[in-house]
């Protein structure tokens, strides 16, 4: 095999933020990029800017995704599309659970299952899953369902390496901490307020930081598999220990 066998990539959640940055970076590297997202207008703008091939379809649309994949021999799959919500499990609606599981986990499983057989037949491929530190750490303020779905993506990434043993197919999980994207604005309904609350006083990651992490893994020599990459702002740490004080017994 050559040191860089890939010709194309398919990126989900590609219309903005991390996904759009990944599209730009892989186009710079010379790959043909299929950009998948729901926002047709933004995809058209991205296509004009980068020369990517836009596909306005939701990853939760199983039939639409099946029709798309039928005509593409995917070398590199970037599972990036995702959603989040505010609140813990006590404030999560059945609709929230369905939406998060559908986009964050079910779509990743289904899309991966669609492209892997072709990769195995060609003995060439790379699956990159964008997860989150929420899949590895518990912390106050996180949405329980979001944490659970991202933990599922982590487990999938590990198991795929076992499933694909003996094939020249690489699997990479990239797990970012806080990245300055529109997601935070959608969560609280006001991007200006989100910027003030989450970014103005913090040096967060930028979407291009994650795109460069993806490029490092994808463009590495084919003998090298970057299995897991946790990417945090220099000034952010994870973990810690909370300990509630004793209180009088409740009546």
Describe, in plain words, how this protein is organized in 3D.
This protein has 8 helices and 7 strands; from the N terminus they run E-H-E-H-E-H-E-H-E-H-E-H-H-H-E. It is globular. Helix 1 (17-28) crosses helix 8 (207-218) and helix 4 packs parallel to helix 5. The chain is α/β, with parallel strands linked by helices and 251 residues long. A 7-stranded parallel beta sheet has the order 3-2-1-4-5-6-7, sandwiched between helices.
Please give the structural blueprint.
Blueprint (H helix, E strand, L loop, with lengths): L7 E5 L4 H12 L3 E6 L2 H11 L2 E4 L5 H8 L6 E4 L14 H29 L2 E6 L13 H20 L5 E8 L6 H6 L2 H9 L7 H12 L9 E4 L20
Parallel strand pairs: 1-2, 1-4, 2-3, 4-5, 5-6, 6-7
Q: Please tell me the total number of domains.
A: 1
Helix content: 40-55%
- Per CATH, what is the topology? Rossmann fold
Distance, first to last CA: 71 Å
The SS-based structural class is alpha/beta
Radius of gyration: 19 Å
CATH superfamily: NAD(P)-binding Rossmann-like Domain
Q: What's the number of extended β-strand segments?
A: 7
For this structure, the quaternary state is single chain
* CATH 2nd-level architecture: 3-Layer(aba) Sandwich
Short summary:
Keywords: Oxidoreductase. The chain is of the alpha/beta class and 251 residues long.
Throw out a few tags for this protein:
251 residues; alpha/beta; Rossmann fold; 7-stranded parallel beta sheet; 7 strands; globular
């Amino acid at each position: 095999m050559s040191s860089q066998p890939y010709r194309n990539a398919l990126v989900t959640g590609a219309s903005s933020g991390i996904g759009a940055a990944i599209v730009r970076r892989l186009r710079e590297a010379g790959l043909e990029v299929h950009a998948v997202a729901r926002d047709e207008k933004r995809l058209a703008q991205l296509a004009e800017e980068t020369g990517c091939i836009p596909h306005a379809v939701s990853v939760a649309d199983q039939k639409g995704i099946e029709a798309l994949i039928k005509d593409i021999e995917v070398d590199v799959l970037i599972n990036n599309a995702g959603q989040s919500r505010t609140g813990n499990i006590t404030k999560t609606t059945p609709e929230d659970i369905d939406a998060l599981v559908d986009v964050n986990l079910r779509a990743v499983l289904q899309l991966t299952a669609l492209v892997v057989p072709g990769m195995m037949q060609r003995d060439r491929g790379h699956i990159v899953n964008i997860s989150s530190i929420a899949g590895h750490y518990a912390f106050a303020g996180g949405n329980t369902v979001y944490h659970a779905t991202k933990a599922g993506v982590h487990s999938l990434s590990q198991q795929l390496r076992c499933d694909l043993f003996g094939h020249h197919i690489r699997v990479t999980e990239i797990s970012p901490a806080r990245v300055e994207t529109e997601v935070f604005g959608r969560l609280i309904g006001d991007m200006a307020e989100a910027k003030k609350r989450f970014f103005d006083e913090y040096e967060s990651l930028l979407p291009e930081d994650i795109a460069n992490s993806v490029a490092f893994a994808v463009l590495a020599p084919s003998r090298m598999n970057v299995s897991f990459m946790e990417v945090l702002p220099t000034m952010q740490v994870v973990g810690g220990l909370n300990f509630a004080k004793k209180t009088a017994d409740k009546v």
